[in-house]
Please model this.
Amino acid sequence: MTVARGTFAYEFSEGSEQALASKEILGGKGAGLAAMSSLGLPVPPGFTITTEACRDYMAAGGLSGEIVEQVERQLGKLEESAGKRLGDSEDPLLVSVRSGATVSMPGMMDTVLNLGLGDAAVEGFAASTGDERFAYDSYRRFIQMFGDVVLKVEHEKFEAELESLKIEAGAEDDTDLSAEDLKGLIERYKRVVEDETGSSFSQDPREQLELSIQAVFDSWNTPRAISYRKEFDLPDDSGTAVTVQAMVFGNMGDSSATGVVFTRDPSTGDQGLWGEFLLNAQGEDVVAGIRTPKPIAEMEAFLPRAFGELLETMRRLENEYRDMQDIEFTVERDKLYMLQTRSGKRTAAAALKIAREMAEEDIISREEAVTRIDPSQLDQVLHPYIDPEAELEILAEGLPASPGAATGKVVFSADEAEERGGAGESVILVRKETTPDDVHGMVRAKGTLTALGGMTSHAAVVARGLGIPAVTGCKALKIDSSAGGFSIDGKTFTGEDTITIEGSTGRVVEGAAPLVEPEMSGDLERLLAWADETRDLGVRANADTPEDANRARSLGAEGIGLCRTEHMFMQEGRLEIVRDMILSDTDEATTDALSRLEPLQRGDFEGILEEMDGLPVTIRLLDPPLHEFLPDSVDLYERLAELGDEESSEATEIRRQLRVVESLEEANPMLGLRGCRLGIVRPGLYRMQARAIAEAAKNAREKGLNPIAEIMVPLVGFRTELAGIRTEIEAVVGEVLGPESPVRIGTMIELPRACVVAHEIAQEADFFSFGTNDLTQTTCGLSRDDAESAFLASYLEGGILEKNPFQTVDQDGVGELVAMACKRGRESRPDIKLGVCGEHGGDPESIRFFHETGLDYVSCSPYRVPVARLAAAQAAVNGEREALGVTR
Ligand code: PEP
Ligand code: MG
Model:
């Protein structure tokens, strides 16, 4: 098919193998019909009005003369090939008018069937089919559908007439109505149309067609279609194509049927026959569920000839499309007609199995198999989920912040979650929002639910890191801490109540919903192995504990890209030492606290290095502002007030603590005393951490292991910051490991200035790791938590921002800086290693950008490692294809 601008309608038979690539113009349905026609498959004749025509219609606010003329020309050809004419009073042609967008939007747009019938044509139709009842039933269905879709007459108005007629005629089912009854019904329907629209039902088939085409175009903009596109991130401006096709009838007696088949099982991916059919029925009967369809295998017994032809057609279509197909067909008087073929929707498990088997059957290459899996779908198979068959009492929906599903009793404080969770009870932590103070509770809870916060709120980020489910931003949730509970829609829940949350969908369910446990299937492992052969980008994990490291390694991480040491500081028993260190006012007290911390840190590092034996582990020195580890000043004032006026050593100590807490309070901690600035102001701190790392490496080596520790300095903006710290670290490491075993020292790149002077900083750094969380905040001047709670949602809704920049990297701004830093860094130090360890390291779209920018690796939370492996491979395949100019 040669596509020409300004050609608004194509006959199906104009299709060629190129039609496979012409979905953008013909829509999925039109392209499928063209392809099937070109394969010589039995497709009722017809034509497709293009998506370009739809866009033209929407821009002009009506059908242009050119479109009307081309439709008329195509209709002439259709009448010729069908050997029938629209509106003919002896043997009329009937057509269907159906929507078909480029990406299928099932059930979202409108369809008109049996178009072309009128008072004269119906008589000819009765005569030519020899079935008067059937003809009048088709006519009344047409009025009803046209009335609903085109004339916007409420469906119920017609249903009410049908119901009262059935009562009058003593008919139980529609099928009990005679031809005479139906003639009467048609008159009633026509009256409904007249009453509701003020005009009589059109008897002009040309007018019927034109109005129907417009109505299908208009249905692109129905609220349900718009929200579907929003949900699935589809463009709003592409428009839908419309197919006009000669009707065939599956309801012409027992040698006729209609059905749907998949070439493989869409829920398991198994080979074999999967689908159903209904004898003597039209497509809508299957959808309406009036009668129960039969399994497709039984069709052989009823319609052996058509069944044989169907099997052969399925095989051909699957080979042609090289993918599992979802096929609609009709059998009219034992003759098979194909009405639609498209790539079938499938579960993640089926997608994996089908991709693997098709590669093993040599239908597709391994690289292509890797591109067939939607990385975001992998969450389905890597986390528990609610049994899709279960009947659920859904209480509310929030944001799907961290995948997986969990059931537990509700608890309202992190301390209670820690206590009850620690004692082995399953609990869900329910909070208005979470802060770093809640982490100890989140760790022990099975999941977290918050009323506020977005997809990158604290709760979301921590939960994803921990691999536990979270639902955030659940607006219906009203926390009433005084009553010790929360309510949703006036229903109250307290600590004895159980809920289930599903962080992959955002659902909050009453009671304990049945969960399905995931497992890393053989199919997944095989596909990931192929992905590993294909990708250039390395994949590491962000992990802070030996357990996380172990999990990351088992999910295929090739190292740790970020080990945040502050999480180790937060652990029970350690926080006191950290506080002693910060609150100390003498050098001796500081040294004492640091020397108590050092063995604890060393132990942690040793555990992680052992788990990651032979793989690099990038350990970041302390980053957050010190006040995050201190008691809250309000709490301290309260305690002081409780003690009254009496002087005591406790009161003196609280006052001393208050002085330090208040001296550390900052107007803007994000840009305050944190990151490497801490290391400079409190030199003993980084020295202690560097020694703990070097000694851990030494101990691991003495056990015969091959530890590869890397030390990373956060939030560097000036070369001189890193230079000083590097000298100190090198000295400590040299003391422990000797000059022969250098530990690589690098920096996070989290500030725009660092990107601009990357060539200078590179002189001091063996590697850069882009902290794209902070780099996004500092580049855009957005504080993540503030933006998410205040205005990000309206920015996204209003289209000011297309994507949440904390989820998908802002390529034009932050991305440009990353690219600049990579270029300048490499020019200055060609062997510098470049990675990303912000949240974006696990986001498929961002991963593609990082691949294109030439980074060496991405690092993400352990559970996202498989997603990143797959996305990195897809980026490599797609990049290669684009370079070769392949569009499909
Ligand atoms: C970052 O800023 O991207 C990063 C990984 O550091 P953190 O999220 O710990 O600030
Ligand atoms: Mg950071």
Notes: The mean pLDDT is 91. The pocket of magnesium ion (ligand 2) is lined by residues 750, 771, 773-774 (CB under 6 Å). The domain at 383-516 is CATH 3.50.30.10 (Glucose Oxidase; domain 1).
